[in-house]
Amino acid sequence: MILATDLDGTFLAGDAAARHRLYRLVDQHPDIALIFITGRGLEAVMPLLSDPSIPRPDYVVCDVGATVVDGRTLQPLQPLQSMIDAHWPGEQVVAAAMRPFTALQRQDVPQERRCSYFCDPATLAPLRSQIQAAAQALGCDVLYSADRYLDILPPDTDKGRTLAALARLLDLPRERILVAGDTLNDLSMYTSGFRGVCVGESEPALTDATASLANTYHATAPGCGGILEAIEHFGLLAADDAFLKPPATARAEGADLVMVYHRMPFDEVMEGDTLVQRPPRSPNGIIPSLLSFFEGGQKGSWVAWSIDDPKRGPFQTHVSVDAQRYPTLTAARVPLTRQEVDIFYKRFSKEAFWPMLHVFWERARFREDDWQVFLKVNRRFAEATAAEAAHGATVWIHDYNLWMVPATLRELRPDLKIAFFHHTYFPSADVFNVVPWRREIIGSLLCCDYIGFHIPRQVENFVDVVRGAMPAERLAWESCAPRFLTYGCAVGLDTMTTRLRVGDREVALGAHPVGTDLRRIHNVLAKPSVRNDIFKLRREIGARKLVLSVERLDYTKGTLAKLEAFERLLEQHPDRQGKVTLLMVCVPAAREMTVYRTLQNQIEQAVGRINGRFSRLDWTPVRFFAQALPFEEVVAHYAAAQVMWITPLRDGLNLVAKEFVATHGIEGSNGVLVLSEFAGAAAELKGAVLTNPHDPADLTAGLLQALSMPEEEAGGRMRQLFGSVEYYDVDRWGREFLEAVRGPEAS
Questions:
Q1: CA-CA distance, 581 to 640, in Å (whole number)?
Q2: In terms of C-beta density within 10 A (0-12 exposed, 13-18 middle, 19 or more buried), how is residue 532 classed?
Q3: DSSP characters over 217-254
Q4: N or C: which end of the chain has fewer CB within 10 A?
Q5: Tens digit of pLDDT for each residue in 385-401?
Q6: How many other CB atoms are found less than 10 A from the CB of residue 500?
């Protein structure tokens, strides 16, 4: 069967259930080919090709038959396209011939090999013969629609004749072709001898014009419902065709809330021949916050990948997380091989998407083979999630590793409420558009009901990308003040979009900067061992000021620029020599991530150079640790440091800044935070000394300002910072995000 369908009012119309049923049928049936045949220009069709919920057509006939392309590559279909082109005199020639008809208004829509106009029907009627003559003089045809629209087209070109030529070229059996439309613009498809359906609510002019055509069925249901009626009416598929059966409904006993994260809420390690769970080594305050939603008995699932290794024994799909604390929470393990993890996470995510997201697009390496693995892994996540969720459940997906999950999940389970939180920075269109699969990614994200980012700037960057990929309407927006800085930093913004409409779908958006786990820091600071570490650090530093830097080894963190700025400070202000120590904790990347080796060598060389230039017997300017410290030791260093120096070149948020503020707020001390204005946290942490890490002079000046700051000013800034960090903690972040997802009905 070949379905050749108009779009607006036909294939894009009908109730949601009918659309889902037809799209699923076309998408999954091995014996159905799809042809889009539309008056839209190719540019206006492309956004539909980005929508994962709409089946990808095999061919696209657009511009009312004047443009024919392959649906996969969007390349012209030859020799058919060349035959049409040969008889087209050119846009400017046609426009010049129509210019004397001043009542005609050119339609400002994408169009090729045609010139489209509209005119008041009363004015147009007496001009028809003159317009026809002018077009014929150019060797062109005129096609009218609804008595007010007209297209100047190459000769013998319309939807029906182009479809017939396409059928001859591809040797398609005419008796297996079903055409579908809803306006008089589609009439030529029916008069070309194909079986056809006028879907419900078609233009009366079309139903009248096709009333006597034996091969045309007039459906009752509009849009996709009418097409399904026609497939049954003409017997184009066997009545017992398995693909006609509706999908199985969701099981009622599934989880009400499903967390979809790239990692489990625990570490899995082998002890002898047994796989056991351990508390996560990574100090991630988000995981306890997400787990807290399952403390009240809400039935839930946590979907994450796990290594499927025969050496570990038979793979268990479901395991409990903590039977005592979370008795209703199950971990659903997605089986991945070590190779799949290496490609999906350690290589592709970090070598393709990570640099692009942080505006280092020249470092991005895009491989089609890796993308296919990424798609396969994301589909497995979606299938596992679909199997876990109860009917109407809320699914919360986390971060860019799982960009393509919403598309498949929406296809599998249209009943779900799908939310996505983007933990990393999201760049503007001029950066994001370097991604070869940008349309597929954006199309997948737009299958969500709600998408959250850290700060308003990232929300608007996403909107910028969407508007460059497809028609989008900004339905609602709000002021960013007073919570967020507007014009006070590089990532500030005054208004933020909160709802978009793309096609017939609405997506809500929000800014939700992740908060700090204050309970955890309170508990750490109360430990005698940590109090002892703080005492020893302060005694070791003595009267000198300690500047602390804690970050992962990554080119986005600006570590080299920071070292060079510290070197300039010691050069330009020799009175600071011997009075300030920079302690750098740089957590190395996994051994498999070879992209960071050169950077680590450069950093170690810079540290050696600075210490070689300025060290004294009793003072080393830079103390460098290329290792991960336990969280207790990190907090002790926070408490002992007078200045926290965080200068990423680009960062989604930066929780280290908030942990430093939380530590000093709890301690009642006056640490100073120097923060890059390109970190997301800069938009909300009022009271930080903001610095531009791309400006060497400003980077040095920001550090000097912090070292020279009077205690009274430092105390005032810290009180302001701690007030924000204490109120907007990680628990409030989780609650507010989920409340925004569930909407007003949840409150």
A1: 12
A2: exposed
A3: EEEEEEHHHHHHHHHHHTT-S-TT-GGGSPPPPPPTTS
A4: C
A5: 999 999 999 999 999 99
A6: 21
